Amino acid sequence: MGKDNEIADNNPAFGAELERTSIADGELLDSVDSLVYTYDKDLSYKSHPDLIGARYMEISVFHVKAGHGEEWRKLGKLVKDAHDKAGTSAHWSMYEIAYGTRTGIHRAQRRQVHGRHRHRIRREQEVQGCPG
Predict the structure, then answer these.
(1) What's the pTM value of the predicted model, to 2 decimals?
(2) Which of 14, 24, 34, 124 has its CA 20 to 30 A from that of 117?
């Protein structure tokens, strides 16, 4: 982000265009939130960090209660171990909130190359008893 700001500062025409579009956005938007997450390698599983070919993203957000972070990490290890044992094709990248809102928020992200994964996800949710 710092490099982006530097580019805008060093290119007056680009900076002016960003300012103009920012003003136009302001007329349309009710609010804007910015959140920063950091990658959590320990809670990620067979992560696919590149987005080449990804057409869809499945994102799940988990709100961990205060004081339960260690239990969350243990649960993450159990889930990963279960996937290893079952030999599933599951994969996800886990991110933890760094700032922008309250602590204890984790985001699991799975890239999907084809839309057919949406049907598989719905079937998984039905089997798990989760609302779709």
Answers:
(1) 0.66
(2) 34
